[in-house]
Amino acid sequence: MNKKRNAILTIISILLLALFLVYANNFLDIYVVRILNVCAIYTILGLSLNLVNGFTGLFSLGHAGFMAVGAYTTALLTMSPAVKKQIFYMAPLIKPLDAITLPFPAALIAGGVLAALAAYIIGAPTLRLKGDYLAIATLGFGEIIRVIFTNTQNITNGALGLKGIPATTNLWWSFGTAAFTLVVLMSLINSSYGRALKAIREDEIAAESMGVSLFFHKNLSFIIGAFFAGIGGGLLGNLLGTIDPKQFNFLFTFNILLIVVLGGMGSFTGTIISAFIITIANEVLRFLDESIDLGFIVFNGKLGLRAVVFSALLMVVVLFYSQGLMGTSEFSWDRLFDKSRWGRIFQRKPLEKGGTDQ
Amino acid sequence: MTLDWLLQHLFNGMTLNMFLQHLLNGISLGSLYALIAIGYTMVYGILRLINFAHGDIFMTATYFAFFGVVTFGMPWYVAFPIVLVMTGLLGMLVEAAAYRPLRDAPKISILISSIGASFLLENLATVIFGGVPRPFPTPEIFTGVVTLGNGLMVQKLIFYIPAVTLVFLVALLYLINKTKTGMAMRAVSKDHETAKVMGINVNRTISLTFGIGSMLAAVGGIMWGMKYPQIAPLMGVIPGLKCFIAAVIGGIGDIKGAVLGGFILGIGEIMLVAFLPNLTGYRDAFAFVLLIVILLCKPTGIVGEKIAEKV
How many CB atoms lie under 10 A from the CB of residue B307? Predict the structure, then answer.
């Protein structure tokens, strides 16, 4: 009975989402559509970081590096030879790349695969490290990728970056990929692999003594996370139209980390909600950085004020709501229709403590 | 075959004088790294935690010095001690706001909180001080060049920096090894609970550790400002990361290790650029590559001892 109801509700909500996308595509202005695209892309990036940080407990700070790999690969494979010739005026693009143009999906997957490959190379040595050592080593690798991209003039065009990337990313691509990411990661988490990952998060030594291979599972999580980060980066590059190495600095990782922490480390639902909240807040709070003349009152914004709000938000979440929006729980129809639960919430009685303190 | 000859023939005509110049540069950069790395290592020793905000405390110190000297027109010998005190207080404030409430929280939360504190300081600095780089007001007494015996001309600062570092290092080692406060710090870094039982005020000791580490960062910041006379809100990020790496290379938690790591990193970086000019663009990656090599070969650093994991 419940199963049937849930299936129907799921189908209805997917249809509603699709209807909304059709509406957005046709009637909303470009600015709003762009924000929606960014929301979906940040969802992908947040989900992939949550797999590594939230579900496996590996505190990785090198996500921006994998996004950069994906973004550059996708961009270079989708740009037309003429555009490439035009922008690579400092040093010509190396041989096979300058003539290749692939269809968008193939280029996206190539970006994801290369990012995963980078993660494999990086993960093999660093995943032996723990806690803050791992954080600083992955952060270091993210920086190294950025430094390499700044210096390889004949592949990435160095500090000049890439311009004139075809704007192939639209709502269907971004939301479709986000949904695909969610389905893949959910099924991973609900499989025996997922349980192994959570076991590693709870207690590495206990997991290992139960026969969970730490090296294999950590690598698995890291590589899958990087694959989707690469795909997210590819979508972002082909949405923005221009990319340069500076874009993929630590600040970018920080934004994604903020999404994961706000949503709850270990909850995909939370990540999706907070990806939308953060991206939209980023636009809504834009006035903080600029001065607005409302006619009767002039609001004096100051450059950087928005960033202050976001960093303060991160601290408030960590200090006072360390579980984030969702903790480690996920959305489900059964939970939504659980009357006794709503009763408890409205009577302000504490819920039983769910999940872990991670 | 002299060293001079070797250098000339192996490294595109580098003369002994040039080599000495690079070496002196490396030593002074290494001293700066060492001063900042000590702050990381002290905090790590006592809390087992990377203080991500340390690089930004270092940045704020340069701004304090700027405002003391330029805005309030204080002479340097008045301004700089005030800067040290204020930076120390800032370090204690950061500890009280971002670390103390999370004393018993999982490590990952504290790490995120410290990243948040770091970004908050950077962004506040951008809003309050402005994002445009400002010139650092180097007092006249610290400027100028000297000519050494063989015609080598170097900045006077290159000698001042290691000298000042040495003075503060001796003072710090005295404080830690010979005073009661230092004994309390060592006790807390070994075991919080036992230290508490012995009547040590753990929170006060941790706060003091942050204060002292931040003061040393301020010393480093002031001299950094004199050496690279431009200050900006994001100037602390890269030195901060590098100095953490220096602390890890030497063996984190150990002050002598931090100094050793600082010198290895400083001299190594300058020499990399001097001997292999093609790799200049990769200068900032050098530290990270070194870090990964060290972590793989000797994860506890050069002087660090191996700690067995308790189950």
Answer: 9
Task: Give the per-residue pLDDT at A358.
Answer: 40
Structure tokens, B248: 């890890």
Chain A residues with beta carbon closer than 8 angstroms to that of B99 = none
B-chain CB neighbours of A308 within 8 Å are 120, 123-124, 127
Interface TM-score (ipTM) > 0.85: no
Interface probe for B, chosen from A134, A253, A319, A357 (most Cβ of B below 10 Å), is A319
Coil, strand or helix at B213: helix
Whether B310 shows a pLDDT value over 60: the answer reads no
**CA of residue B262 relative to chain centroid, distance:** 8
| Inter-residue contact B200 to B248 (CB < 8 Å) | no
Residues 243-262 of B with CB under 8 A from A: 244-245, 248
**Residues A318, A261: contact at Cβ < 8 Å?**
yes
**Which of B101, B284, B295 has the CB atom closest to A137's CB atom?**
B295
Residue A79 contacts residue A104 (beta carbons within 8 Å): no
Would an 8 Å CB–CB cutoff place A88 in contact with chain B?
Answer: no
Dist CA B100 CA B104 (whole Å):
9
pLDDT in tens, B136-176: 888 888 888 888 777 778 888 888 999 999 999 999 999 99
Q: Is A148 on the interface with B (CB under 8 A)?
A: yes
Alpha carbon of A56: minimum distance to chain B alpha carbons (Å): 12
d(CA B145, CA B140): 12
Give me the helix-helix angle, A305-320 and A268-284, nearest 10°: 150
Residue A87 to chain B, least CA–CA distance (Å): 21
Q: Which two tokens stand for residue B11?
A: 């490294």
Distance between CA atoms of A215 and B5, rounded to whole angstroms?
50
CATH number of B25-297: 1.10.3470
Q: Which of B48, B102, B119, B245 to mutate to test the interface with A (most CBs of A within 10 A)?
A: B119
Please give the Cα distance from B307 to A205 (Å, whole number): 16
Contact A187, A51 (CB under 8 A): no
Which residues have a Cβ under 8 Å from the Cβ of B218 and sit 6 or more positions away?
B57, B58, B61, B64, B83, B84, B86, B87, B88
3-class state of residue A213 by DSSP = coil
CB contact under 8 A, B284 and A308: no
Query: Per residue in B247-273, pLDDT tens?
Result: 988 888 888 899 999 999 999 999 888
- Which of the pair, B269 or B292, is modelled with greater confidence? B269
Q: Can you tell me the distance from the alpha carbon of A349 to that of A24, in angstroms, rounded to the nearest whole number?
A: 40
Q: What is the C-alpha to C-alpha distance for residues B58 and B128, in angstroms, rounded to an integer?
A: 16
Instruction: Check A135 against B105: CB less than 8 A apart.
Output: no
- Taking the C-alpha atoms of residue B298 and residue A307, their distance in angstroms, rounded to an integer, is 38
| Partner-chain contact B123 A308, CB within 8 Å | yes
Stated as kind and residue range, the H or E segment containing B229 is none
Q: A140 and chain B: CB distance < 8 Å anywhere?
A: yes
